[in-house]
Amino acid sequence: MDDKNNFSVPITQAPVTQEPEFHSATPKTNWKKAIPFIIVAIIVVGVSVGAMALQQSFSGGSRASVSSGTAHLTFSPAGGNLTVGNKTDISLSSTISTEQIDGIQATFSLSSSGNYSDITFTPTIPVGMRLAVNTKQISGSVATFQVVYLTNSPSAPYSNSASIALGTLALTPSAVGTSTLSFDQTLSKIASHTSNADILAFPQTYSFTLSTPAPSTTASATSTPTPTPTSTPSTGTITISNFTASDKTQTGITLTWTTSIPATSQVLYDLAGVSPLGSNSSLDATLTTNHSVTVSDLAPNTRYDFQAKSVSASGQVAVSKKSAFKTDNH
Predict the structure, then answer these.
(1) What is the pLDDT of residues 200-246, one digit of tens each?
(2) Calpha distance 23→17 (Å, rounded)
């Protein structure tokens, strides 16, 4: 967040001018009775301007989520299969640990919005905060939402060690395809009250597969001869194996793994010890059983935790256990 001076407006006392003395028989007006009203007006203006400064600090792009952030924004469920014609509720929540905060701003986008007949976000206002912004904008095939919660008073920070419910995104798919739900890493922020810094860790990107309902099976009324069984490939259950780092440089690591059935490729990662992992590679939507993803822009001689993630054509999601790998030093 911006400097603390942005959250309050200092009040400068106007110079006092000595009242001239008139020798008249007419009684003077007691102007001192107006002082309480003047003081109240100054306080109201100061509080209003302070609240506006806090809200304006969220609207800009001067802050961005960071890999070392202690606060998180998450959706649940974290990806998977959505059935065409069925409404699915996806919950937005936050965790701030023991931090005291001044506000939460979540800006997130849903791709392939044309594949949905209904997209609605309903905010849940945490006790002790107020809803400052709740917007929805559709541009092309992308639906973008922004929701901002601020404390009721700039001088009274918000704290909650439990998971904080922020709202529900209701989705009803109308056509098959794929869709991603992702946070804007520049415009999504959680403002620390003590440091005025953005403490939001890099949010995760969520992938969904939009599929038709499974056909219902009914018994045939007419008896037909049973054909000779033939062996056909089975989709089976997706599993991940052989997750390893095949190549390492100072700033990048290539991860490989195999899946039991064809699926997409994506890697979740973060600095070692950070949980949950807050960063992810770009989604490779090619369905394959042999996967290879290179994660770049890493720090030299630094240990990171990685997880492989694959989604099958039917929407099954598999995520590997965490594995730690270190970038090269030279």
Answers:
(1) 987 788 999 988 887 755 544 555 666 655 433 446 899 999 999 98
(2) 19
